[in-house]
Amino acid sequence: MRTIHFISGLPRAGSTLLSNILRQNPDIHSESVSSLAEIVGSVNKSWFEFSSNRVYPNLDAKNSLLKSMLQGYYNYNQKPIIIDKDMRWVSMIGLLEALLERPVKMIICVRNPAEILSSFEKLRKENPLFFINADASLKDSSSIASRAYYYANPDGLLGSAHRNIKDAIIMGFLDRLLFVDYGRYCNSPKSQTKRIYDFLELPTYNHDFENIVQEEYFSTVHPGLPNLHKIKSELNKTTINCVEYLGLELYEQYNREIFWNAWI
What we know:
By secondary structure, the chain is α/β, with parallel strands linked by helices. The chain has helices at 15-22, 36-46, 51-55, 59-72, 93-100, 113-126, 133-138, 144-152, 157-170, 182-187, 189-200, 242-246, 248-254, and strands at residues 3-9, 28-29, 81-85, 106-110, 177-181. The protein has 13 helices and 5 strands. A 5-stranded parallel sheet has the order 2-3-1-4-5. The longest helix has 14 residues, at 59-72. The relative contact order is 0.19.
């Protein structure tokens, strides 16, 4: 019987790295990029956009269809443990539990927001020929400060993910979540990986943190940056001087809201 677990959390917080490390285990399948959350979420939200469903909701059919997508997405893979990665999952815990008919287990990758914003700026600086989505949206008003807000505002890539994690806790789902801090994971991968296995109630596996193979990698331009999901073959934390990329004022502004420390 196949079991599906989930990785969610903040952007630039090590979820792709973790996914590729866990897939070293021959019993685990996890992909760098998955469209499952977007597919399930889209069908759930658009159900009543069909005129027939407004007349006759047919919720049993909706439930059956969503269940079949959730279970059938990985039918091509025979491994017993699936760990699907998407930032959207943390906002869909209630739906997932209704479909799976059990409490979910979700790994939440987190990182200091100032480091995340610095990481985006670092990628932008290293790839000056790419016109990123933030620049396209902000146009002439694009600056370090406006780009930071672009990502961190309540509807931004970082801000929305941050908000969804808080919402999950307020809604009573804290016991479904395991917070994995990027810095702590890179500094102590063996002990942090054991935390994950204990949380998922799986037998431990001897992972190779010095030979990480990214078997499935697709260059992406979301949010307009190359190598957004590319990882290194050897585990080591990339130290980012946040003040260098954000300046002192912005660093102090975003070096906060780290509410998960109590649970890592």
